[in-house]
Amino acid sequence: MKVETLQEFCVQAMLKCGMSEGPARIAAEVLVTTDAWGVYSHGTRALRQYLKRMRAGGLKAQARPHIIHEGPAFAMLDADNALAMVSACRAMEIAIAKAKSAGIGYVTVKNSCHFGAAGYYANMAENMIGMAMSNVDTNVVAPSSKKPVIGCNPLAYAVPAGKEKPVFLDIAMSTVAAGKIAAAKFAGKRIPNTWYVDDEGLPTTDPSLYPEHGALQPMAGHKGFGLAILIEVLSAVLAGAFIAIDIAALMPLAAFQERMDQMIREIRNAPRAKGADRIYLPGEIEWQRYEEQKQKGLSLPPEVIDSLNGLADDLELERLF
Fold this sequence. Notes:
- By secondary structure, this protein is α+β, with helices and mostly antiparallel strands.
- Helices cover 41% and strands 15% of the residues.
- The chain is built from ten helices and twelve strands.
- The protein is globular, with a radius of gyration of 20 Å.
């Protein structure tokens, strides 16, 4: 399937739910790009649930995200319960504008919801260093706790290079994103015992417990838990966080890009472990998938197709599959 075909389907679904074309196209771009990266847990699969929530009144189709407080290098954005892809893109646009004038921009967001893949917004900064993070409903245990105490709280960064692709990382502070537990449950597959715990706080390989029972395990034990606390402070105690750092305010952009290219190539060309084909930097696999799927068409897994067909039926649109 062509990327453009899936984008147009998503736009039409959002228009049927009362959204305007501009915001709908922004959200479709975010979700389909995420699928093209191969991050299917955070792409168009989720649109059906977002629009169910919108039709029920939990999200506003005609929301108007707006700044409620700002300074030279920061702003606070009220998302007005918009579809979060729309308000997150607006927040990063504001952060970029602030960074261009002040060297750094920090934007917090309130009255928002699940915003999909944080890496999309980090990459919006282009010739800047971009960061995006968010708190999440409590779903992760602390080391030694029986019940979840904090969210998996995603963090993403993107760093531009010159001739090389940007280096970017998008991770949750749990061992895996909750969507991967749901995907394993849908497929009837077992999961590694480092992903989830049961109601007694013990590791389990059974994804059928999700989400009514058990909880996610923190990434790297106390290290992931500690980072989740930091993100909670920046994106919940303060409010959802988007950061842009203007490299050109600190040093010549071309010199930075050259140094990034050098670092990337040194790491990629380092001696490889026995049997390894190559060394990947953060984001390289996603960029490769993106280019392949843009050229050859999207190849979507069954759970995504099932969700999109369900969305088509919900809104009386023609199925894509």
